Amino acid sequence: MTRVGRDFGNTMQKEAVPPVSADVVFASSRFPNYKIGANNQILEVKEDVKVLSMKEVVARETAQLLDQQKRLSVRDLTSKFEKGLAAAAKLSDEAKLREAASLEKHVLLKNLRDALESLKGRVAGKNKDDVEEAIAMVEALAVQLTQREGELSQEKAEVKKLATFLKQASEDAKKLVDEERAFARAEIEKAREAVQRVEEALQEHERISRASGQQDIDELMKEVQEARRIKMLHQPSKVMDMEQELKALRHQLEEKSKRSLQLQKELAISKSGERNMYEVDGTEALGSYLRLRPCSENAPDLSECSLQWYRLTCDTGKKEPISGATKPIYAPEPFDVSRTLQAEIAFDGQKIIVETTGPIDPAPGLGNYVEALVRRHDIEFNVVIIQMNGSDYSSPSIHVLHIGKMRMKLCKGKTTLTKEYYSASMQLCGVRGGGNAAAQAAFWQPKSDVSFVLAFESERERNAAIMLARRFAFDCNIMLAGPDDRTAIGS
User: Which regions form coiled coils (predicted)?
Assistant: First the structure.
């Protein structure tokens, strides 16, 4: 009979159980707690603290990211993706640690089973049954461990997929952040340029406003000073009295002039002893028009007679025909000032000559007005085209006649009808005929195939335009003349 000593356990442990390899690293400092469940299954006793699996942790983080993606900015989303990627890397490291721990468990179970198999051959009886039960438990634990390893492999594959997805999402987020940053920088630069342009425009506007405001203030101060000076020199009542007196004197002068003309005509008739059948009616001054009027019942109708107007030089008495002046109405032009006008009426082989009582008087203030215009570089007159190339012009729109130092130009807005330099072929004079409006109309032929009849705003504007054009042309050694008989303009 074999005798078992008290130190059997220690002897068996030293001799029968081989030592554990030094390469094995235990995941914890204690052996796991197991118990026998239904059908002799070995169950691991879990601790009270609930530990989430890797799949649950990743699912929870992913749900949180997807939930917050709509309300996070691009920068925060990138941060979250980077945190998720770091969590996935951490979970991958934990999976590696668990894989290593699982390998350690397999090695431990194998060593334990080998130790139990070695112990089984050394014991008998109840101890042998206990050893066999322990071997069965170790084998069941190995099977359960294998199952857990399969689940861990699946979780590992899912973690790798999720890590790949999070990595790609992080790269996309970084790319999106870079694009948004570049777009934001471009928008900021555009905004800066726009702000700079607005600031420059505001500064320019402010500078112009200050300059114009200062100029307006200076002009206003000058006007105020002039008004004060006039107020100091003249009292309002005196000025009004002077204006009324001047108006009355002008009216009296006009009446006396008409009376003087009538007396001169009667004196001429009394000297000649016979009364002429026609006479010149109208104010004999620049800015008016003259009309041939029959003064006898036996006078033939002027439409059945041939007419011709002449200029008489006061000094020499030279008689010059006025080209194109073959109508009963003639409006004197600046070239007729200080000259006597004569009209020759021919009918049935007879000729009747009538003339003005004296030289044509100049228009008051016209010379000073022209001298003021000469100082400008380009003078503009508003005109209306009555005829173009001998035909009536249908449009009554206002055009602008430019009279410059070297050329003349007729335009409407930005459209130029004609523009010609002063030349010998250019002609400019008053209209020959034209009815009551003859004193405000002028004939202008810039070149041989183009001609206009222009109506000015007043007689003063018409005569000033003719005088300016002739003066500028004379400075260019060119003499502007009136139209010849072939281009005469009728009434």
Answer: 109-148, 174-266
